Amino acid sequence: MTVLRNPNVRHGALIAATTLAVAAVIVVPDSRPAVAAAVHSTEYPGRTIGSGGYGYIGQFGVNNAVSTPAPFDFYFPYGISVAGDKIYVADSGLAPREVGSQDAGHSLQAFTLTGKPGLDGIAYTTNGEWTVKTHQTEPNPQDLVRSDLILAGDPEVRGHRGVATDADGNVYVVTSNSAPFIKKYSPAGVELARWGAPGVSSDPARMTWPVGIAVDADGDIYVTAEGYAAVVVFDSSGNLRGRYLGAVTPDQPITAPGRLNSPQSIAIDRTGGGIYVGDIYAGGRQGKIHKLRVNKAAGLPATPENPNGWAWSVDTSFGTGGAVNAGPFSSVMSLQVDQANGDVLSVLGSGGIARRTSAGANITTIGSVSGNVHDEGRTGTVRGMAVDARGFVYATTQQNTSASNTRSIVQIFALTPSPLTGLTATPGPESVTLNWAASAVGHGQADVLDYVVERSTDGGATWVTMPQEARSTATTRVITGLAPGTETQFRVRAFSEAGSGDPATAAAVPEVVIEPTPTPTPTEPTPTPTPTDPSPTPTPSPTDPTPTPTDPTPTETAGPVLPSAGPTSSGTPSTDPGGHGGLPGTGSAGVPLLAGAAMLLLIAGVWIRTRRRDA
Question: Domain limits at 339?
Answer without folding.
Answer: 54-415
